[in-house]
Amino acid sequence: MQTVKQRETWVDNVKVTACILVVLGHFFQSMNASHIIPSIDLFYWFNQTIYYFHVPLFFICSGYLYQQYSTVNNVQTWGRNVTKKLLALGVPYIIFSFATWVLKTAFSDSVNSQIGNLGDVLFLHPTAPYWYLYALFFLFLITPTFKNKKAAAVGFCAALVLKIICIIFGKIDIQAILYILKNEIWFVIGMCISSFDLKKYLVKSKIIIPAAAGVIFVGLSVLVYVLGIDNRAVAFLLGLLACYAVVALTAKISSGKKQSAVMNFFSRYTMPIFLMHTLFAAPLRALLLKVGIQNAVIQIVLGLAISFIGPVIAAIIMRKLKWPEFIMYPGKFIRLKKK
What we know:
globular
């Protein structure tokens, strides 16, 4: 299985965009649940709208990189890939899920959402944001790479059927199956971008097209919110529109250009920020409330700052100390031998 990867600017930039939206979503949910910011339409619209596409963007990036740099099409390569992903995803998933469970258990009076027992959190009902790692493992478990464009077309149709099943039947008790039905389509879309070399078409298209798609998406999301439409098919179509706009715009803007210093910096820390932003923001919010600081401006400024700066500093310290970095990047320390 080929494992040598090259950084792709557009993928890094899409991940940075998705990571920022994930942090903002969790942060403002906590601010609202703590009654620090009011329950106004702007908050509810923003919260509803980003969930159409921010996590799907992560799945698209993962699917693209998987297809672009891996070959998994027989039992041997499948077994090695599953073992590799179990290590790479399982270690941070277990460690940070456990840390969140300890935090919410120890400070149950100060957190916004209660949590179940440890076994339930780790194996049955993953907590945010770590459910993404849980879901991603199962997508790797069931999805081979495509040998050619025909296989990619078949894979896309199969993923679309799974999504339609999820849309029709909705809630499914087995969480792993639900995650596959909901998210396989986004993962496969990423794989298809690689298989059909769609990036070159995105780059060649006029920037006005994805920009218009983004504007239309925002307008439709406002309309859906105002009308109170709660429909899984509508949410999926809006997600497709938003993901196209973000991916196409990013690919177009990133093409042939050196990545900006800001995006380059954040692209190196998307994983730490994703894993640790809640572990920094929640204790700081609780501490500020304990000392009587409820001012929304202070809470927002300090909370957002620690959500990004805290994980970055922690990641730098871990890298300097070397072995602590294992909890985020176990693949750097344990190399699986090729068979």
